[in-house]
Amino acid sequence: MNSTVPELLVRDMQVKSRTGRQRLQVDALRVAAGECLAVRGPSGAGKSTLLFALAGLIPVKDGSITWGGREIAGTSERKRAAFRRETCGIVFQDHLLFEELSAQDNAGLSALFAPKSAREEIDERGSTMLATLGVDASDRRRSESYSGGERQRIAVARALAGDPPVILADEPTASLDRANADRLIDDLFGQARAKGKTLIAVSHDPVLFEAADRVVTLQDGVLAGP
Predict the structure, then answer these.
(1) What's the confidence (pLDDT) of residue 1?
(2) pTM, entire model
(3) CB 132 within 8 A of CB 103
(4) How far apart are CA 90 and CA 100, in angstroms?
(5) Which pLDDT tens digit goes with each residue over 162-202?
(6) What CA–CA distance (Å, rounded) separates 10 from 120?
(7) pLDDT for the residue 55
(8) Which of 126, 128, 145, 211 has the most CB atoms lying inside 10 A of its own CB?
(9) Within the chain, where are the H helices?
């Protein structure tokens, strides 16, 4: 992955449904390289849509999304996929683990799509991240057998195994009890800050907001200030 941490600049961005209904409007957003940003808002406000747009997971035709000067709005799916592969580690709300695989196999999954020269390093980094997050990489049981907190930590290890400069997290504590949520927040923000990575997390969790450098609010699909 690209090791340079990019600044994010969003201008006049709109995301519309297939019928033309506006789902998201962001007039201006700047996230400095290495900043930890939290995005809050009620259910249905557009938080996940924002995160997916910033990751290039959904097409954006109106406005601009630039990461370190690299424009992804209006680009092809192939170019957006290349951007994600080179820049982003994504933690999804529903884990999206391969249930039949072990924790180690899930954590090192991105090695399958990396150049041969990088695969061993990614796999080793996945093992290291699992250990850092308290999951035994040598345990070969299926991931479906782990608890919710363990599964989310496996997902975080997978997101960080490629050493991405940007981490995007969608409701990372939503399925966890308070103790496991607090631990995950410490781990996620700790890893981001230790390596100077940019972290953008959407959430309902006030504890996560306290851990962030800055909090912005989405309401009815429109991004407002803190």
Answers:
(1) 58
(2) 0.89
(3) no
(4) 20
(5) 889 999 999 998 878 898 889 889 989 998 999 999 999 99
(6) 35
(7) 96
(8) 126
(9) 47-55, 77-87, 103-107, 116-132, 148-161, 178-194, 206-211
